[in-house]
Design brief:
The protein is an alpha+beta fold. It contains 23 helices and 13 strands. Strands 1, 2, 3, 4, 5, 6, 7 and 8 form an 8-stranded mixed β-sheet that branches. Strand 2 and strand 3 form a beta hairpin. Helix 12 packs parallel to helix 14. The longest helix is centred in the first third of the chain and has 21 residues. The chain starts with 6 loop residues before the first strand and ends in a 13-residue tail after the last helix. The C terminus is likely disordered. This is Adenylate/guanylate cyclase domain-containing protein.
Length: 592
């Protein structure tokens, strides 16, 4: 079967199973089926509300897919509580509880089906979950432990049926008590201005389809704040992970590395909307500023100008010697186009295959209505870059990214996104010098653009300048500490540390990457070489055995493909890897 027929992606899988279904079938099969269908509807509703989808139902088991681990955990807590409440209204012998296993990892996608060890691991973890309980893998735990008010009980490593390597498992419980691990504090640079994070706004309109409007207003405020040269802004990919308000401002700000938090509530009336915005100092939980806005529904796309200007004004009073910045000068779009673009972004953040195609439908409709709108062109460029990256540049997706980005620049030359998209395309095509020019422009416009910082680091790394690349990867990590694809940035950081002979730092970065994606081949490949260069040969060989268990068909051609300007860079990484060869001989290049 050709490689092109498959897509690989990082996703989170929940395996959901009815406890005691067979027993109930023996007592009253019609009641059992009706009870299961009622509970399955609850599960599907909760999964859909959290951005997931159910699939692969078989017998009394259900599988669900989520774009982010935090969404999966939120959905599981929600439907389990609803099912507990439902079971409480029926006799004890007629209750049907559910248990859940959650795992995050790389899967192979073909049509509506998902394949791979990480899918099977979720099913095996579910078998170890308590009745009405939830068990998660260490990989999922690494993504969610700092972002939910939950406690985690470490069950240790377990050998799972038909899974080659042991998996560390945690039982998760929702509650207000002490959590197993505190949120780590991120050290702030006292010489730098404090960062701000815009949290996802709460939709109090009562209609789920209004979620995208609430997120859209928050996204516009982020985009405007990013135009302020002096103000570091946490990326929405990280700040939007914090929908769970139970943590409180202090812990949320500490986890994100942000001094200030912007939050909001959106409600809808007859012909108008109400928006309440707050600015909080997370360090002391002091409310710095709050204001309510009531506007006609057709002005929802304009309100960010006024809100953003006031937020910047308040922050300027908090920080000495700041420059006076004029921001939020984005081209006006019609309400209909604005809604289509925001709905597309909302679907993309759900990260399911169905939602990504719905996002494309929204963007194509927006393009028909406003073919020259820069916001529409930027979102289309990102959509095709995302698909081109998943397919390793195959097809004409990168050409389409280039076309959309250039058209966007003609409409708005002061938007950082098209510059960054052009830089990322140049990296994938092995043109790092051209990439640096585009990315420099992006960062001049938006110094808080985490994606551009990471891409700039990759471009310098390809040119052999690891010392310049390292702080760029670290900045990207600081600006987006909870990015679902952060494993890639950490892998690049590990490579840069290898080239700079900073072996301990390389090992630490690789391990952080593997915490987020244990099957990311490049991070483990680099870790093996760094361990060997550190004379930690036993550890290196153990890691190498693990590497071949995860990647039995690995070929060094996969590393040789990386477009370093000097081929000696590739040879250096391969030599490091070969130092840990268990039989002492070098590994030859195999077929691609």
């Amino acid at each position: 079967m050709s490689e092109g027929q498959y897509t690989r992606q990082v996703t989170t899988i929940a395996s959901i199973d009815a406890v005691g279904f067979s027993r109930l079938m023996g007592i009253d099969d019609e009641f059992a089926v009706a009870a299961f269908e009622e509970r399955r509807s609850i599960i599907a509703e909760s999964c859909d509300a959290a951005g997931g989808r159910t699939f692969g139902a078989a017998g009394d088991s259900i599988m669900a897919e989520f774009g982010t681990p935090i969404d999966a955990l939120r959905a599981a807590f929600d439907f389990q509580q609803r099912i507990v409440d439902l079971n409480g209204r029926v006799p004890g012998d007629r209750r049907m509880p559910f248990r859940v296993g959650i795992n995050t990892g790389n899967v192979i996608v073909r049509g509506a089906s998902l394949y791979g060890d990480d899918v099977n691991i979720a099913a095996r973890i579910q078998e170890l979950a308590p009745t009405d309980g939830l068990a998660i893998s260490e990989t999922t735990w690494n993504h969610v432990r700092d972002k939910v008010a939950a406690s985690f009980t470490d069950l240790g490593e377990r050998q799972l049926k038909n899974i080659a390597l042991p998996v560390r498992i945690f039982v998760a419980n929702r509650g207000d008590g002490e959590r197993a691990e505190a949120v780590p504090r991120r050290a702030a640079d006292p010489a730098a201005p404090p960062a701000v994070a815009v949290l996802p706004f709460q939709n109090e309109a009562g209609a789920q389809e209004f979620d995208y409007v609430a997120d859209g207003v928050a996204e516009d405020i982020i985009q405007g704040l990013c135009s302020t040269r002096w103000l570091p802004v946490i990326a929405r990919e990280s700040s939007f992970q914090f929908r769970d308000k139970a943590l409180g401002p202090r812990m949320t700000g500490s986890a994100l590395g942000a001094r200030y938090l912007v939050d909001g509530r959106l409600a809808r009336g007859s012909g108008y909307f109400d928006l309440v915005i707050t600015l909080t100092d997370a360090a002391n939980e002091r409310l710095v500023w709050s204001r309510g806005f009531r506007r006609p529904l057709d002005e929802v796309s304009l309100v960010n100008d006024e809100i953003g200007g006031q937020i910047v004004s308040m922050l300027e009073k908090e920080v000495e010697r700041v420059e006076q910045a004029r921001t939020f000068q984005v081209p006006w779009e019609s309400l209909e186009t604005w809604q289509l673009v925001r709905r597309a972004r909302w679907h993309m953040q759900r990260r399911t295959r169905e939602d990504t195609m719905l996002a494309l439908d929204c963007l194509e409709e927006a393009r028909r209505k406003a073919p020259n709108a820069s916001a529409v062109l930027n979102e289309l460029a990102w959509w095709y870059f995302w698909r081109g990256w998943l397919q390793a540049g195959a097809g004409d997706d990168l050409d389409r990214v280039t076309d959309f980005s250039r058209k966007s620049l003609l409409m708005d030359s002061q938007d950082a996104r098209p510059h960054a998209h052009l830089g990322a395309v140049a990296i994938m095509r092995g043109q790092p010098k051209a990439a640096i020019e585009h990315l420099h422009e992006a960062l001049q416009i938006n110094p808080s653009f985490a994606f551009a910082h990471s891409a700039m680091g990759s471009a310098h790394l390809l040119l052999g300048d690891a010392a310049t690349a390292i702080p760029m990867f670290r900045t990207a990590r600081r600006l987006s500490p909870f990015d679902i694809y952060g494993f890639h940035n950490l892998g690049e950081l590990a490579a840069a540390c290898c080239f700079d002979r900073r072996w301990d730092d390389a090992i630490a970065a690789a391990e952080a990457s593997l915490d987020l994606s244990p099957r990311y081949f490049y991070a483990r490949f680099l870790k093996i070489g760094a361990l060997a260069r550190s004379d930690r040969m036993e550890e290196a060989r153990r890691e190498k055995a693990l590497f071949h268990a995860y990647h039995p068909d690995f070929s060094l051609e996969r590393v040789a493909w990386i477009p370093f300007a000097e081929k000696s860079a590739t040879a250096f990484l391969i030599d490091n890897f070969n130092l840990a060869d268990q039989d002492g001989g070098a590994i030859e290049f195999g077929p691609a």
